[in-house]
């Protein structure tokens, strides 16, 4: 593999234009196709096979007009009267009707005549429900409770809810201009005396806007780190340009995929951008750094300052520079491939869980990482060649950018000597520190995103809070029970439905249950259940489980069955599924990555230590994230919320891949030294000296890129950005630069132990570049030299 990569790197350097043109054509082509065919990303989350999803599908079969509550193009408008007034006041009611008339006039609603002010709607509902329930012999207190549970007007008449449905097949099919037409009207009236906000499926996309601020901040900090690393403005720009090209192709590809898949949600491109930008810069950094080292060797010494290197380059032939690039890609490029492969394994393994939206997010991020690897191996050498001898020009004043290949002690060497002197102390301190930070993780609570977890101050969050205050927490977390009496005689069906309603009312945590729809022959009924608590409250999950547990006894008593569905049950089932598959997923990733690292390092202990170190860093990351984002420690987060259900499994996949990146880049240099005859201790010190500066720069870049995404409004992206930044810090600086070298010193020669029988059957993988060590400048220019006259 090293020889192939050498040829690729030297060829791309010598024949730069075809490689540059190829990637630019791909970027333009994908961008054009995305512009022509891309659709709005989905805002829904669902998993086939869940009890609640199966019940939803059954309900749509029995009630053809029923909509999927997670994807229906519906929303709610919450209206609150000015302080001291009510919605029944003539002036207030007139203003509300004026607003609703403008909403109807937009022409984007499916049934505009059904959009009426909550006072009239409540009066109509009262006139319809009360006689019906009285005719059925319903007690007065139950009638009052049923009417209040569905009334669009609060008991104090200050708050009203207006339901709207857009003229579109599903929420993701709502045109942006249609949504904007309605929200513009509502926002205008919200600026007056009325409080007018909105939430629900249709308005979810309007609540969260994705901007490029995070990417720009990440790029800016990365640029500073690269300037310090290389001491050159031009060299610092190489990783940035290549990463931007790769991320551009990746994001545009994700947008194009929306034309073929409904599983691409609004977080998918942001996650792909976050991961692609970080690894794209890092992979390019490793290759450019190794290229610089090779040029210094070719220039005649290890003591060259950046300005001296720039002068030497001016007299260096293309063949010499192409050879240096070939050596860089053949060595650092091999590590890039295996580092990228561990990230791909961690991400692609998420598809085994069979959660469509999670699979789409993982595969999109994995594809962006794969593009970053290919860009670093082919586009980057051509880009460097484009600048020729000026690649290390634009010297930054005051920055020495020392080369780790020289003989002078570097900060990395001084640090690893301290670790070597007291390995037990550093090992114990590192493990204890991460262990203590992990303690808050035992209180971790998970929930799916709802309007209640939206950013404070946004219309959905305000609408959620207004509704909760005026109607109770349960109004935001309705459930639907589908009662199936099809196997019962017709005369027994009403009693069975009534028994179901009573069963629900007797369940702790339920404030109301009432029949809202039945089939013509009453073989199926929909029962609206209003819980006592909100959607993300653990007690609501307990209520849902109690309702399901009671189904067995209900079936034995009546012969009928029921299932529970709705947004809240579906989201609760998704959380349970994600929690159930977490451990199997970790096992799959660990086994696959162990095999890959076994091939790279040809050691039992090194892959095992890599996995254990990852476990420590991710546990500490969970602890710190729970403490700050869920528990609100230190007041950093003003709106503590449960962590999103799919954050742990995504975080584990991403952190594992990134952790193995640092393991590969740092320990391959240790392996390289050991394989060339150094003692295990000296190889560890020398390898750390060579890799520490670049790994430190890479870690700082990743931390800055990830931390910059905390500026996004999306709670998931904000939390994920923080968690990834913290995880990289723990893993790079505590695990890989403290615990791993300490353990390697303690194991000494045993660190590279591999059973002989296993050594014989494992395929040889040349990560250290053994196959290209004897190549010369002539190998970088295989074309015959032109004949000269004698």
TL;DR of this structure?
This protein is an alpha+beta fold. Helices cover 62% and strands 6% of the residues.
State the major sheet.
Answer: 4 strands, antiparallel
Which architecture of the domain at 1-39 and 211-403 per CATH? Up-down Bundle
Radius of gyration: 31 Å
Please name the CATH topology of the domain at 1-39 and 211-403. Multidrug efflux transporter AcrB transmembrane fold
Beta-strand share of residues: 5-15%
Output the CATH homologous superfamily of the domain at 1-39 and 211-403: Multidrug efflux transporter AcrB transmembrane domain
Q: What's the end-to-end separation, in Å? A: 41 Å
**Spans of 5+ residues with little confidence (pLDDT < 50)?**
785-790
What general outline do the C-alpha atoms trace? elongated
Q: What structural class do you assign from the helix and strand content? A: alpha+beta
Membrane topology: Multi-pass membrane protein
Keywords: Cell membrane, Membrane, Transmembrane, Transmembrane helix
Organism: Corynebacterium halotolerans YIM 70093 = DSM 44683
Subcellular location: Cell membrane
Structure characterization notes:
With 790 residues, the protein is α+β, with helices and mostly antiparallel strands. Among the domains are: 1-39 and 211-403, Multidrug efflux transporter AcrB transmembrane domain (Multidrug efflux transporter AcrB transmembrane fold), CATH 1.20.1640; 69-207, Alpha-Beta Plaits; 412-439 and 579-614 and 642-755, Up-down Bundle (Multidrug efflux transporter AcrB transmembrane fold), CATH 1.20.1640. Helices cover 62% and strands 6% of the residues. It contains 26 helices and nine strands. The strands form three sheets. It has a four-stranded antiparallel beta sheet with strand order 6-7-5-8, sandwiched between helices.
């Amino acid at each position: 593999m090293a020889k192939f990569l050498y040829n690729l790197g030297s060829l791309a350097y010598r024949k730069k234009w075809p490689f540059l043109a190829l990637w630019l054509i791909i970027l333009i082509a994908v961008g054009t196709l995305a512009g022509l065919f891309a659709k709005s990303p989905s805002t829904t989350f669902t998993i086939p096979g869940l009890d609640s999803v199966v019940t939803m599908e059954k309900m749509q079969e029995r009630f053809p007009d029923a909509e999927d509550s997670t994807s229906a193009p519906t929303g709610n408008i919450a209206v609150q009267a000015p302080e001291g007034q009510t919605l029944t006041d003539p002036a207030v009611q007139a203003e509300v009707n004026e607003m609703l008339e403008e909403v109807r006039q937009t022409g984007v609603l499916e049934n505009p005549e059904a959009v009426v002010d909550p006072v009239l709607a409540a009066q109509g509902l009262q006139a319809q429900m009360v006689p019906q329930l009285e005719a059925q012999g319903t007690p007065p207190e139950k009638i009052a409770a049923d009417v209040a549970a569905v009334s669009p007007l609060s008991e104090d008449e200050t708050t009203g809810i207006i339901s709207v449905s857009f003229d579109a097949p599903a929420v993701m099919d709502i045109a942006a201009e249609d949504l904007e037409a309605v929200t513009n009207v509502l926002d205008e009236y919200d600026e007056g005396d009325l409080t007018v906000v909105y939430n629900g499926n249709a308005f979810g996309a309007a609540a969260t806007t994705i901007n490029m601020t995070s990417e720009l901040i990440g790029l800016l900090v990365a640029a500073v780190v690269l300037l310090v690393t290389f001491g050159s403005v031009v060299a610092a720009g190489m990783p940035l340009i290549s990463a931007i090209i790769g991320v551009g192709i990746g994001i545009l590809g994700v947008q194009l995929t929306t034309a073929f898949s409904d599983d691409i949600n609004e977080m998918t491109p942001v996650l792909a951008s976050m991961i692609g930008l970080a690894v794209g810069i890092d992979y390019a950094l490793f290759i450019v750094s190794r290229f610089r080292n090779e040029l210094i060797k070719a220039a005649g010494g290890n003591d060259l300052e950046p300005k001296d290197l720039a002068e030497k380059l001016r007299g260096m032939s293309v063949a010499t520079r192409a050879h240096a690039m070939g050596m860089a890609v053949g060595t650092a490029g091999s590590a890039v491939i295996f580092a990228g492969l561990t990230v791909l394994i961690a991400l692609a393994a998420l598809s085994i869980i069979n959660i469509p939206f999670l699979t789409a997010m993982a595969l999109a991020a994995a594809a962006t990482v794969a593009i970053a690897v290919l860009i670093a191996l082919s586009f980057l050498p051509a880009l460097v060649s484009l600048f020729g001898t000026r690649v290390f020009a634009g010297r930054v004043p005051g920055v020495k950018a020392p080369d780790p290949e020289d003989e002078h002690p570097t900060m990395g060497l001084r640090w690893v000597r301290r670790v070597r002197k007291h390995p037990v102390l550093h090992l114990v301190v590192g493990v204890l520190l991460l262990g203590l930070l992990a303690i808050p993780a035992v209180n971790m609570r998970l929930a799916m995103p709802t309007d209640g977890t939206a950013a404070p101050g946004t219309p959905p969050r305000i609408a959620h809070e207004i509704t909760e205050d005026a109607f109770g927490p349960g109004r935001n977390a309705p459930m639907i029970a589908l009662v199936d009496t099809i196997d019962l005689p017709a005369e027994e069906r009403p009693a069975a439905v009534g028994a179901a309603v009573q069963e629900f009312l007797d369940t702790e945590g339920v404030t109301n249950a009432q029949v809202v729809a039945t089939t013509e022959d009453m073989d199926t009924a929909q029962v609206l259940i209003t819980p006592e608590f909100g959607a993300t409250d653990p007690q609501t999950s307990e209520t849902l489980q109690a309702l399901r547990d009671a189904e067995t006894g209900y079936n034995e008593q009546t012969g009928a069955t029921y299932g529970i569905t709705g947004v809240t049950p579906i989201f609760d089932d998704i959380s349970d599924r994600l929690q159930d598959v977490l451990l199997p997923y970790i096992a799959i990733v660990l086994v696959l990555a162990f095999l890959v690292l076994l091939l790279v390092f040809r050691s039992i202990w090194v892959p095992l230590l890599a996995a254990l170190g990852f476990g420590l860093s991710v546990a500490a990351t969970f602890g710190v994230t729970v403490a700050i984002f869920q528990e609100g420690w230190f007041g950093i987060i003003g709106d503590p919320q449960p962590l999103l259900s799919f954050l742990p499994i995504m975080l584990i996949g991403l952190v594992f891949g990134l952790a193995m990146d640092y393991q590969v880049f740092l320990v391959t240099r240790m392996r390289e030294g050991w394989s060339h005859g150094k003692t295990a201790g000296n190889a560890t010190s020398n390898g750390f000296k060579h890799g520490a500066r670049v790994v430190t720069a890479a870690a700082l870049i990743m931390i800055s890129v990830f931390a910059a995404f905390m500026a996004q409004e999306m709670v998931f992206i904000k939390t994920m950005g923080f968690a990834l930044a913290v995880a990289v810090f723990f893993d790079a600086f505590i695990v890989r630069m403290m615990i791993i070298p300490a353990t390697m010193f303690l194991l000494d020669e045993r660190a590279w132990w591999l059973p002989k029988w296993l050594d014989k059957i494992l395929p040889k993988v040349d990560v250290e570049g053994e196959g290209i060590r004897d190549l010369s400048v002539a190998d970088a220019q295989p074309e015959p030299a032109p004949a000269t006259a004698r």
